[in-house]
Amino acid sequence: MEKKQDFTLSLVVPAYNEEESIQTFIDTIDKELASLSDRLQIVFVNDGSRDRTRQVIEEVITRDPRVTLVNLARNFGKEAAMTAGLFHARGDAVIPMDVDLQDPPALIHEFVRMWQQGYDTVYGVRTDRNADTPMKRLTAGGFYRLFNAVSTTTKIPENAGDFRLMDRRVVEVIKQLPERNRFMKGLFAWAGFNSIGVPYERPARAAGETKFNYWKLWNFALDGFFSFSSWPLRVWSYIGASVALLSFIYMLVIITKVIFFGIDSPGYASLMCVILFLGGMQLISIGVIGEYLGRMFLEVKQRPVFVVEGIYGQYARDDQQERA
């Protein structure tokens, strides 16, 4: 399906303590996307920053009529901030991207070209991650492979991040998904539609420092696994059956040795090993159940994914004009 030629693009840009990156981001957008300038809406989502991120964005608003600030009441996390941006973006196509310019704006030209050819989602595929640490590259590759192995209904493209162009109808589907534990890469893939990847080399950050650490990335990965697969629950049935079978075989071996060969089996050491092993297995299985139960606890309370303190800039002016 051919896309219309008269369109607007909404860039959704979550920001948390990114005061050093805002102006650099705007300058790069102006340089790399000059031919699309009159079609752009830049939607910054301030995720409860504790530095001058909000003030810097408000200063940009006074100079750039394309900019909107969606200011969240506190820090809700990047996935919630991105969701807030998707809910408020008004363009015919929406592009979530990072403010640190590790998502190269120049690639958006190719996104738009593929979108106009009929694709509903055009996502970036990282072919070179030398800007990341060796450990991050290793764990990221392992995560994608494991996720796709255990998820039966949703597959995410390997080395594809949040940087993508989504048609308005895809965005409307994403907005219908109400879960509080949000793994956006999975939600984007779950929506389906006609998709294609565009390879690119991931550069280093233009300014500032990453707000992610390995603990946050670990919890992020858990959200992905538990949100899109029941395999961690089912696997314990197979582990339990395997342990029971091995235990039965070992029991037959002990009985045979005692009855037919008169060999007495030492008791304390072997008994302690079995007890500690089975106790550890049981605690792990209870922990897995607890992960699912904790997420169910958050879901049934039905609290909003984010709370908006206020909207400023282009969208606020448009709303005032409509009410006038």
TrEMBL record:
The keyword DNA repair belongs to this UniProt entry's keyword annotation: no
Cell compartment(s), UniProt: Membrane
Domain of life according to the entry: Bacteria
Membrane topology of the entry: Multi-pass membrane protein
Glycosyltransferase 2-like domain location: 10-172
PANTHER family in the cross-refs: PROPHAGE BACTOPRENOL GLUCOSYL TRANSFERASE HOMOLOG, UNDECAPRENYL-PHOSPHATE 4-DEOXY-4-FORMAMIDO-L-ARABINOSE TRANSFERASE-RELATED
A GO MF label: glycosyltransferase activity
Species of origin: Pseudaeromonas sharmana
Protein name stated in the entry: Glycosyltransferase family 2 protein
EC number: 2.4.-.-
